[in-house]
Amino acid sequence: MKVAVVGATGLVGSKMLQVLTERNFPVTELLPVASEKSIGKEIEFKGKKYAIVSMQDAIDAKPAVAIFSAGGDTSKEWAPKFAEVGTTVVDNSSAWRMDPSKKLIVPEINADSLTETDKIIANPNCSTIQMVVALNPLYKKYGIKRIVVSTYQSVSGSGKKGVDQLESERNGGKSSNPAYAHPIDRNILPQIDVFLDNGYTKEEMKMVNETKKIMRNEDIAVTATTVRVPVTGGHSESVNVEFDQDFNLEEVKELLANAPGVVLEDDIKNGIYPMPINAYEKDDVFVGRLRRDESQANTLNMWIVSDNIRKGAATNAVQIAEYLTENGLIK
Ligand code: 2RA
């Protein structure tokens, strides 16, 4: 299968190539696309060297699927051009996520809604993905009235810029191309992306709006505070979830332990709980610190950790492509 990876040299794009290899996705020809200045440079994929090609050359090759991680503007301009030649696009930017005509997919939750007419498919925001993967089995059992989430997000969410800034500061220097307006080393920033008129950031409203769309329920109340922390291995989230009905804590643990894509790490007597350092380079969503919210009926506290570059971006996108292939929606 001809596969294009658009943004192939970025942090997420290069992870997509790694995940395609690890999961043995049936790539017969790779079309790596990056910025104009990278055209002609070579990358290695599955032991073979591939030259970076232009966007138009990739379109002309009519790949079965094009996996994008190249920013919203690039996706808005080029994804429709791929779709016009019959390519199915899986896009990791926010460009199409809230477009009512496009599907926002987490395979464990709603891949079954996909059809061969879906030619541009949106990959949700990393912080949304890990939260809904953990909440979905509980949502199906108990229904959800309200979610309050606070995040502790890795600098890798800002791409190489974020990682470089932290590294420079830790080495006593200053990044030449900082990702943040403030120092991130020995600090935390209660701002991810720009502020909106309602006082929330774009990142926070992504979590609010994407969660409702993925879970196909606009009545779920969601509020979020998203925070950048000097960590590189993954995003962590403190989630307080009010169900429609009471729950049994042991049953909750069993539901999570048996949920697709979820690993339960909940043994406080032995100091076992999810941490980014342990989630790094894994594809699972790790859940722990489960306890009843004693201040409110039908409400549970959870701690959710996942590698934001993998399940939060690259792996989820590849899993969507796998679903499409396995169900004959792309050939
Ligand atoms: C971040 N979720 O962490 C956003 C985009 N990757 O910066």
UniProtKB/TrEMBL annotation:
Pathway given in the UniProt record: Amino-acid biosynthesis; L-methionine biosynthesis via de novo pathway; L-homoserine from L-aspartate: step 2/3; Amino-acid biosynthesis; L-lysine biosynthesis via DAP pathway; (S)-tetrahydrodipicolinate from L-aspartate: step 2/4; Amino-acid biosynthesis; L-threonine biosynthesis; L-threonine from L-aspartate: step 2/5
Binding-site residues, NADP(+): 9-12, 37-38, 156-157, 308
A molecular function (GO) term: aspartate-semialdehyde dehydrogenase activity
Record keywords, A-Z: Amino-acid biosynthesis, Diaminopimelate biosynthesis, Lysine biosynthesis, Methionine biosynthesis, NADP, Oxidoreductase, Threonine biosynthesis
Chain residue ranges for the region called Disordered: 156-182
Domain Semialdehyde dehydrogenase NAD-binding: 2-117
Active-site feature positions: 126 (acyl-thioester intermediate), 235 (proton acceptor)
EC number: 1.2.1.11
InterPro entries according to UniProt: Asp_semialdehyde_DH (IPR012080), Asp_semialdehyde_DH_beta (IPR005986), NAD(P)-bd_dom_sf (IPR036291), Semialdehyde_DH_NAD-bd (IPR000534), Semialdhyde_DH_dimer_dom (IPR012280)
Biased composition (Basic and acidic residues): 161-172
GO BP, one annotated term: lysine biosynthetic process via diaminopimelate
Binding site for phosphate: 97
Tree of life domain: Bacteria
Record-linked Pfam families: Semialdhyde_dh, Semialdhyde_dhC
Reaction(s) this enzyme catalyzes, per UniProt: L-aspartate 4-semialdehyde + phosphate + NADP(+) = 4-phospho-L-aspartate + NADPH + H(+)
Gene3D superfamilies: Dihydrodipicolinate Reductase, domain 2, NAD(P)-binding Rossmann-like Domain
Binding site for substrate: 153, 228
HAMAP family listed in its UniProt record: ASADH
Subunit structure: Homodimer.
Function field: Catalyzes the NADPH-dependent formation of L-aspartate-semialdehyde (L-ASA) by the reductive dephosphorylation of L-aspartyl-4-phosphate.
Family assignment from sequence similarity: Belongs to the aspartate-semialdehyde dehydrogenase family.
Protein name from the UniProt record: Aspartate-semialdehyde dehydrogenase
Organism: Rhizosphaericola mali
The encoding gene: asd
